[in-house]
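1st attempt posting a full record on here, be nice pls
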Amino acid sequence: MLTARFKHLGLSAGNRVLDLGCGEGRHVHGLYLLGGLEIYGVDLNQASLDKAAEGLATLATPQLDETSQVTFETGDATALRFEDGYFDAVICSEVMEHLPDYHAAIKEIRRVLKPTGKLCISVPHAWPERICWQLAPPPNGYAFEPGGHIRIFDEVDLKVSVESHGFKLFNRHHAHGIHVPYWWLKCAFWDREDDHPMVKAYHNFLVWDLMKKPFLSRALDTVVSPVMGKSMVLYFNGVEAH
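the predicted structure (as tokens):
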């Protein structure tokens, strides 16, 4: 279930790509399947990295292993070990809403990205996210569990924040429209979470959609995502300093 659209990153053979806050590796896996890339998946959570590596092992083929290189490692988004200008592209998907100092993370991305490299950032779409916060309020709700979301980004605020660090927005879209009702249900029945029959039923529908990719649900997602997509996805070019 990819949120970033790789076609906007202008990738070519030999490029280095960082998936910052890679979680269980969905974007790393997708990049690997493109072939010809040097890919780094960085996350704070070792358990998620272990699952990412397990998932990659199920996709690996001798042909792709000859052309692709994947490295998983722990790391802090605000203090990366890589040298300046190391990457051709960076993906940072569903991470900024968790970070106390997201400006420090954007500054670090700017440092490790080539001067004219490309950046994809996705965060939860503001108005569906606000409903989640209302349905599962504090002190123990959706946004207040350990590692939960600590802010809601409006598009203009995020655009201005990223562009203040030497980037220029060039594309945008929303993603995962049919996933929004699932999160609303989870939040409405927060005390029971995945145990509630309605939550279970919608989860099963999403798994079926992911595995089978039927035309009707794919078409529905395409129609509703611009209005109520779970994720807001922004693409930026690096701007060389003069």
